[in-house]
Structures are given as C-alpha cells and as structure tokens.
Amino acid sequence: MIAAIDNPSFQAFPWVGLALWAAFAVTAFVCASATRWVHSTGQLLEIPGTERWALILTACGVALLGGFAAAGPVAIPVALLAALVALVGFVKKRDAVVPETRRFLGRGGSANIAAEVRTAFKRSEERTRATKQPAPSLTDRAKSLLGAMSKRREKAVAVDAGSGGSADAVDAGAFMFLKKDGTHAIDTDDPEAMSENVRNSRKMLMAAMRAEATDIHFEPQEQQYFIRFRIDGVLQDIGKMPIGEGKGVVSTLKVLSDMNIAERRRPQDGTFAATLDGAKFDIRAASTPTSYGEKMVLRLLQSSGGVMKSGLDKIGLRPQVLKRLNEIIHKPYGMFLVVGPTGSGKTTTVYASLSEIDAHKHNITTIEDPVEYRLENITQIAVNTQAEVSFANILRSVLRQDPDVLLVGEIRDKETAEIACQAALTGHFVFSTLHANDTVATITRLLDLGLDPTLIQTAVTAVLGQRLARKLCEKCKQKCAPPPGLLKKFKLRDGEIDHIYREKGCEHCRGTGFKGRMGIHELLVMNDGIRDLITSQPVVGDLKKAAIANGTQTLQIDGLMKVIKGQTSVSEILRVTT
Length: 578
Ligand SMILES: [Zn+2]
Prior knowledge:
Blueprint: H1 2-6, H2 8-11, H3 14-45, H4 50-71, H5 75-97, H6 109-132, H7 140-150, H8 167-170, E1 175-178, E2 184-186, H9 196-210, E3 213-220, E4 224-231, E5 234-242, H10 243-256, E6 268-276, E7 279-290, E8 293-302, H11 306-310, H12 319-329, E9 334-339, H13 346-354, E10 364-368, E11 379-382, H14 391-398, E12 405-408, H15 414-425, E13 429-434, H16 439-448, H17 453-459, E14 460-472, E15 478-480, H18 484-489, E16 500-502, E17 514-525, H19 528-534, H20 540-549, H21 555-564, H22 570-577
Parallel strand pairs: 9-13, 9-14, 10-11, 10-12, 12-13
Antiparallel strand pairs: 1-2, 1-6, 3-4, 3-8, 4-5, 6-7, 7-8, 14-17, 15-16
Helix pairs in contact: 3-4, 3-5, 4-5, 7-10, 9-10, 14-15, 15-17, 17-19, 19-20, 21-22
The chain binds zinc ion.
C-alpha cells in the first residue's frame, strides 16, 4: 500500500487520495470507538487496568493525527495495527472474566461478537425509546429513596420499573438489578450515572456472583461494615466498607427487595433478582437489627440453567447409584427422601430428580418454603406460616387435585409426615427432604416424630443421604502418599494406589486449596430385611448392617472413592462426614 502511494503513476488517479482519506477516517473511527467500548466494558465488568487500555487506544488515535501530519500515510497502517494489538490485549482480559459463551477470542468468537453487537444495538434502541416515554410510575417509597440518592448526582439513577418488559429483554446486559417479577429495577448500564449506593451494591453483588458465593453477609461494626461471602460452604472475609456507605447499601438493598426502609428495629425479609452475563440469580434478603445497625444477609440462588434443568447425572452420583435412583423415581407411587444437614444440597438433588420426570405427562405439584427455583409446567405453592398455610394444610388440598408427583419441601412434623406417607401409599410419588444425618438416622427420626412404623415400612421407597464436599483446586492440588487407613478401608495392598491429592492453596482458589463442590451420597433402598427391622424397635447398628447388606455404600466410603479419583482430599471428606 505504501509503495503504491509513493509510486507517482498512481498519484495521478484522484481515487488514491480519496482512498487514503477513507483509510484515515476508518482508522480514526476504530481508535475512537474502541476507546469508548474499552472504557464502558472495562468499567461494567470491573476489569483491572481498564483506564490504561483506554489510554493506549486514545494514544493510537493521537499518534494517527500527529503521525499523518508529520510522516504522511505511513501513520495509518501503523496506528491501525497498534490499535488492533491493544484491542486484542484488552479482549484477552475481558474474555477471562466473562463466561465461555460470550468470549470473543477462540472458537465461536465471531458469532459471540455478532451477538454482542446486536445486543448493543437493541439496548441503545431501547434506551432511546425509554427517554422518549414519560417517566414510569413507581412505588412512592422507591421514588423518594432513589430521588434522595440522586440529589448528589443530578444525572443519577434512571429508574424504569414499568417498561423493560420481560426478563428476556433485559437478560443480555452484563449486570442488572431486577424486581421480583423480572422487570428492570435500576439502570446499571451507565456506571457514570449510578448513585454511589447503587454502585457499591452492584459491586458487592458482582463480586459475590463471580466468586460463586451462595451467601453475602453484610454486618455492621462500630466504624465499618464487614463483608463476608460463603463460598463452597465456608465463610470468607472479603472486605470492609465505611459505616456511612454501608448504610446506603443496606437502604438500596431494602428498596430492591421491597422492604420497609423506615423500619430498622424489626427483622425483615424480601426478594429481588439480578443478572450477570446472562445468568439470572434470585436473591433472598434478610435484615436483622444489631447493636451497631442493620445486618443484611443475602442468599444467591442461580435460577437460570444450573443443575435444576440438567438432571440427576450432573450432581456427582456414582453410575450404580444413578441407575438405581432412576428406577426408583420413575415408579408410579412411593416416597423418596433426600436427607442431610442444612446446606448439604438437598434441594438441588430433589429438583434434579424432579426434572427427570416428564412434566407434560404428569401432574407435578410442589409445596415449598419458600419457592426457590421456578420450573416449567409444574404447579409451585409456597408455604406461608403467618397465614397458617402449612405444609400439611396445602398437602391435604393438593391431594384433591389429582396429582401424580408431589414435592413436599421439607418434612418437619408428624402431621406432614403422615399425610405425605399416605399420599405415597395411594398412588402418588412423593419427593421430600428431611433434616437427618444419614439414611439410617432418617428411619429413627421418622419413628421419633411418632410416625406409625407400618406407615414408614410401606410408604418409604428409598432414602438418599447427602453432603457437599469441596473439590480440590485443579491448579494447586498436591500429590501425597495415601494414608494406610485409607488402603485398609478398601482392602487395598501397599502400592496399589500410587498417590492421592491434598489441598495447598493458590491465587485461583483464594488460598483455600478448593474450588467448587460436589455431592457425596449414600443410597438406602428399602427391602424386606430393613422393613422387618422397622417394626421391631430397631437399633441403629442393625439397620446399618441391613442397609450395607442391601448394597448401601456409606457417605464416607463414597467420599473416599472420590479421594482416590483425585477429586477431593481425605481431610475434606472427614470434615463433612464426621
Ligand atoms: Zn488453588
């Protein structure tokens, strides 16, 4: 190109000059729009060093102007190349923080870029339309608070509760606050226009979602608010916030979850939702007054995608257990219980089992406290103890509606247990959870509730005991020799297993040595031996023997098998099973 321009015979044609100016304009446009895109994307995704990348791109634009004046056309390809190199550098950083389906480099990158461009167009169109419309009506509370927030920054929070429409329309953004019903709650597209409180709330939620935290604890002390995340079942210190800013965040979260902001002396709870990179999270907020102010705990439930829709084979069951379980849940009647302590993933497993059943051919009804995940073609009913709508009450009325499959969120009392068992005996399949340590303890727990042994004997088909164990971080797990006890447990000879792994800790896993969790399970299937024991005031030891004789592998054995596979460590299995 440069040679062509220098060649006098080409300069005779006027289009060379024209093409030159066009190339100049395109390069200038690339530099300017790339700078703008880097700036907004980087801020939205909170990519470190964003300003530096934007500055480099601006410098490319300036170099183009200066270079063109000083050195002529050669400045165009040089500036364009420099801008592209910088852009690729930034895209690499961006790709590291977005999910695989939205990455620009690598396989499927061009399709992702096209999708991103389409979304950007759609959103700018929506924004234009929104500014033309009169301001939508809001609840007075939200209006006054958001109004107060915006006093500091006149541009402030654009609120759009009415328009915005379905969750689909707003799903595409990087981060978005949604109301309970899925409508757009606060505009977080433009970081410049957000109030400080909204920005702080957004930052905290984004950090939690990225870290795959399940809970955020936001607790006031004398001078500051402490932020802790529960990641893989363990609380971790994340940071602090000055008390004033913390209070602002609490107010924002209360507005979002429809709580009464003026009420600070009584515990309150509410829900809202947020999307990050297309993934939707339902968030349950609970505020409690403490001596230093209000403490806020947020529980994050990823409602879109996830295990719920993918089925039982994704929760880490051994193939034999999976096969047996699949046979059990497809029986026309009976009862399947998932048991474990709080936070052992019972709900996930129950939903995953439920997703195996054809919702088109069966009338499936769930009774939950509260409804955690929305499922298609399924009737979901929430328990409301304040309105005296208990599990037992709903269960009785639901049974009159010809259900095939029932999910009773949790069995807590004798009444619920009795109705659920009767349902299981009268041609319905019942799924439920129970707070019990393991499968054998479930039977003694049901007997302790005062349930008739013959009812348990006939109604319960199978019990799955469960724990969540943290998976070793693949980046830093360390080889170690298998302890002799482990070999003995599996009747293995010395040297039969070369090595297992233990946790170490690195940047990738925040120094914990673990990343992600998986289930460990024990499945007890009822047989005549166990049934006979139930009616004769069973001893736990005898029940356990009968279960093992019927093929049950205990939680610990299942966990240790996963240790041998290199997925987790001995200490982690001991932590969750003892
Ligand atoms: Zn690590």
